[in-house]
Design goal:
The complex is a heterodimer of chains A (112) and B (113). Chain A is built from no helices and eleven strands. Chain A is mainly β and 112 residues long. With 113 residues, chain B is an all-beta fold.
């Protein structure tokens, strides 16, 4: 079945760039998503990318997609302490509407 | 602010009881999905409703059921609660099946004792 994998932890210094990586197995993925979850809260949609794109930039966030290797990354420039949270990668298959397959999440810790 | 609201935010039930969780979709969104997020895990897809019909189901038993109403609000019902049902239940709304923006509510945290 479909699977999404992420490394579990990442620690960076304030002001550095963070890069969170994700791999997925579903070759029919149409959309790939990044969500942020703070303690006790729901999921905040950060950005998403359609599978025919290889890059998307939105302010401090840059998403890179390598469809051949089924690899997705999220780069956060000038990381701040407020960026500390769990980041989830998720993929949606063809015409699957709201059915997302999530990774386990990467806990980002930003140290001052 | 995603426009997706869920209630209640927290609740405690005992094993064997039944629970109903509610979700109000963002205006104009006709598709709602429900997810279960156990502690320390990523969300798991339960099922999806599109225009009041179930349209896809994850690996959850029949005691997990749902409804979507004409105004596109939705309910998740869980019967015969088990301890392992303790989790954060999230709903998400989207404007259709084609993908794109998908917004989540803040979730309902269910504790089963």
């Amino acid at each position: 079945g479909e699977d999404v994998e992420q490394s579990l932890f990442l620690s960076v210094r304030e002001g550095d760039s963070s890069v969170i990586n994700c791999t997925y197995t579903d070759s029919s993925s149409t959309y790939l998503y990044w969500y942020k979850q703070e303690p006790g809260a729901g999921l905040q949609l950060l950005t998403y990318i359609f599978s025919n794109m290889d890059m998307k930039q939105d302010q401090r966030l840059t998403v890179l997609l390598n469809k051949k290797d089924k690899h997705l990354s999220l780069r956060i420039a000038d990381t701040q302490t407020g960026d500390s949270a769990i980041y989830f990668c998720a993929e949606m298959g063809d015409n699957q509407g709201g059915k997302l397959i999530f990774g386990q999440g990467t806990e980002l810790s930003v140290k001052p | 602010e995603t426009g997706v609201t869920q209630s209640p935010t927290h609740l405690i039930k005992t094993r064997g009881q039944q629970v109903t969780l509610r979700c109000s979709s963002q205006s104009g969104h006709n598709t709602v999905s429900w997810y279960q997020q156990a502690l320390g895990q990523g969300p798991q897809f339960i099922f999806q409703y599109y225009r009041e019909e179930e349209n896809g189901r994850g690996n959850f038993p029949p005691r997990f059921s749902g409804l979507q109403f004409p105004n596109y609000s939705s309910e998740l019902n869980v019967n015969a609660l088990e301890l392992d049902d303790s989790a954060l239940y999230l709903c998400a709304s989207s404007p259709g099946l084609a993908g794109g923006e998908l917004f989540f509510g803040e979730g309902s945290r269910l504790t089963v004792l």
